[in-house]
Structure prediction request, 247 residues.
Amino acid sequence: MPAQDESTARRQIAEVAREIYGRKLSGASDGNLSVRLTNGTFATTPSGVHKGRMRPEDVVIVDAAGKTIGGGKPSSELALHLAAYQARPDVNAVIHGHPPMAIAYQLAGGKLSEVLVSEVVFACGLIATAPYSTPTTLQVPEVLGPYLRCYDVMLMERHGSVTLGPDLDTALVRLDALEHTALIYCTVKMMGGAQPIPPHEVDHLFALAKPQTPLYRQAGAGCPAPEPQEPVDERLVQAVLAALGRR
Ligand SMILES: [Zn+2]
Prediction:
């Protein structure tokens, strides 16, 4: 779906913001969403307005540099949204949410990139988790940049989600699917865990889900791994070196 005209985008943003709050995919003042407009500017949620009470007239219009053209102060993660539009010409809507089960699962050491249920592949593709960056700073788009280029659904460590789409409905469906998947994964973890779907069947699902291989599954695409690399355990390294020294 192409970019939206301003009045449609204002109405959609207010509706989706209320829905996100109503379904507890973000707190009242958390998260933000935006839509690419046909004239090359962007409509986004304002800073500090209750998501459950958002009105079309509250929506802020900014240019590609983030300068406000109409309305009040834009959301605090605007730089993240603009980085997504710059990286992905196919993306016309961005939602940053704070989905509680997805955040909890990541905090508990769960890997959302594991494919435990088939539907996640169709709704989200591969769910990536980007390393921690300080919210509302330019560190967020800097750290998330390589992920935005490669994935449609991302979690930022100890913070929240980013879902992209060709339109706002798709970005919302992906946020909803992320949280629903995390609810299943959290529950199964509490019940003792489950084995992932075997790799050959995951390949089959991806082949069914998308006619073309997504970027993150293409060799040489330069995409970051979907999970942050585990930090090297220095004590283990020293123990190995000491053992080698004794040989
Ligand atoms: Zn946030």
About this structure: The helical segments are 6-22, 78-87, 100-107, 119-124, 139-150, 168-190, 199-209, 234-246.
